[in-house]
Design goal:
single chain; 229 residues; alpha+beta; six-stranded antiparallel beta sheet; two-stranded antiparallel sheet; 8 helices; 8 strands; elongated
């Protein structure tokens, strides 16, 4: 007896056939699942050439369907595929209230009369402890950081405790430290996440930096700042 689904493809219900009756059609959310499986299902190297034909056969689709699935994913999916990993930004948390910062003033900050020019010209600075949850291959990955806000500008300082934070600092250091990379991949393996090479980690970190603060968080921060002032 043969196994008709050796790669454990997700069972999906087609919505019909295409206009030329050469392939099944699927709902947009199922097209996303088909697209993701091309990258997320672990495939032994000796079976790589067999995998894509098996996927197309299982869902009875053609290359055009796969092209369309990629377009749909880019248009409506709330995640990103980076090599063989899916990453998604989850919710944010403000862990503590705003902390007013007293900035150090040097002699250069005073005018000719000895008055601190920043008293009237420079906006008050605040810090805030924050957390953003990310998901790699649907595994929750917390990311803690300190947010510094002054006027219309802000900067972040990442903690160094969680695995995702360690990945950030590894990429930021810009070193090819195989021992540190091995330690990171060992921790990923403990979570059931496939190993990453340097390029994957760099792109994961880029995604994190692009999604650490979103419009909803900015709206909340603006309300906090308005209340503080």
């Amino acid at each position: 007896m043969t196994n008709d689904n050796p790669y454990d493809f997700l069972p999906l219900q087609p919505t019909g056939r295409n206009e030329t009756d050469t392939a099944n059609t699927y709902a947009p959310e199922d097209m996303i699942k088909i697209y993701e499986q091309q990258f997320l299902i672990p495939v032994p190297e000796e079976q790589l050439t067999e995998f894509l034909p098996a996927l197309k056969s299982f869902y009875d689709i053609d290359n055009h369907t796969l092209d369309v699935s990629a377009i749909i994913f880019e248009a409506i999916a709330d995640a990103s595929i980076i090599y063989n990993h899916k990453i998604k930004a989850g919710r944010y948390q403000l862990l503590e209230g705003l902390v007013k910062e007293e900035l150090e003033r040097g002699e250069d900050d005073k005018n000719d009369s000895g008055v601190d020019r920043n008293d009237s010209e420079e906006a008050q600075a605040y810090t805030l402890e924050c957390k953003r949850t990310f998901f790699i291959n649907d595994i929750e990955m917390p990311y803690y950081f300190n947010l510094f806000i002054q006027g219309d500008s802000y900067s972040t300082l990442t903690k160094q405790d969680t695995l995702l934070e360690q990945m950030y600092w590894f990429a930021s250091d810009g070193t090819d430290d195989n021992e540190r990379l091995g330690t990171i991949n060992a921790q990923l393996a403990d979570l059931g996440i496939r190993a990453m090479d340097l390029a994957t980690i760099y792109q994961i970190v880029d995604y994190v930096e692009d999604h650490i603060i979103d419009d909803a968080m900015i709206e909340t921060l603006n309300k906090l700042l308005d209340d503080a002032e």
